[in-house]
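Supplementary notes for students who missed Thursday's class. We covered one full example, reproduced here. Read the sequence, then the structure, then the short commentary at the end.
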Amino acid sequence: MTSNAPAVVLPFPGNEELAAEVAATLGTRRGTLALHRFPDEETGVRIADPVTGCDVVLVCTLDRPDSKLVALYLAALTARELGARRVFLVAPYLPYLRQDSRFHPGEGTSAVHVGHWLSGFLDGVVTAEPHLHRIQRLDQIFRVPARTVGAAGPIARWIRENVAKPVLVGSEGDRQAWIAGIAQALSCPHFMFNRLRHGDRDVELRLPTVAAQQERTPVLLDGIVSSGRTMIAAVELLRASGFSPPVCIAVHPLFSPEVCEQVLSVGAREVVTCNTVRHISNGIDLHRALALEARALLEQHPPAEAA
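Structure (token representation):
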């Protein structure tokens, strides 16, 4: 690191593996952050390590975010109260980015509100494959440096090593260019379902004419899977159309283990996800890339007195 300040890496519960990777990459120590849940569901925060004059790196993926965001706020301000020089966040999954516009009268743009809020108590953020559509870059909603790690390269490598003769499949929308890029890296074909979403758990898919691809192994790709309804419908449609059991890949696994079992039960060969959220399906590593990006963030954005 170019700055002379020591760093302390503090993992939230469940983020210890990523925190260890970040600490090793920064060449620094991993501290202890204790969270206590009171009977009234308030959160108490205690940092067990000295942080005076240090850069503090909080490591917390933000799936099921509401209670975590309050704890994150308290942890960041506690670190500052105890003398931390700067406070950064490594959050492999960043929430609230889907609501990037007012889709119905009376709604707010949650992506902007949450980005501005986090910017108010953090000095920088690192995340993986954020769900960006109408907002094209994180610096449109963050007022502090925000760096991202892409999942396309690691996903392409996993497919190359594990799937013979793939054809990539997705749902039309904001992921089309992303899937096309992975297909180009693999020199393989791809096609997109037509998708009609009638509700959070009501999805209708239509398959284009792709009979020429049926000798290939379909690989379903998605960024975020929560209810799993789109993935289940896609597997069912592919199997009914004569395709071999598809491989299902997602970046952010927000779905339950039961949904994973449902996907397999309707005919998927396997379900594989990136380790942005701890899940039984994790098989594609992004921790190393996140740790390297965290190091770059601290090195390229020194504090004002060291700039």
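Commentary. The chain has a mean pLDDT of 90. Helices lie at 16-26, 65-81, 110-121, 152-162, 176-186, 229-240, 257-265, 287-300. If anything here is unclear, bring it to office hours.
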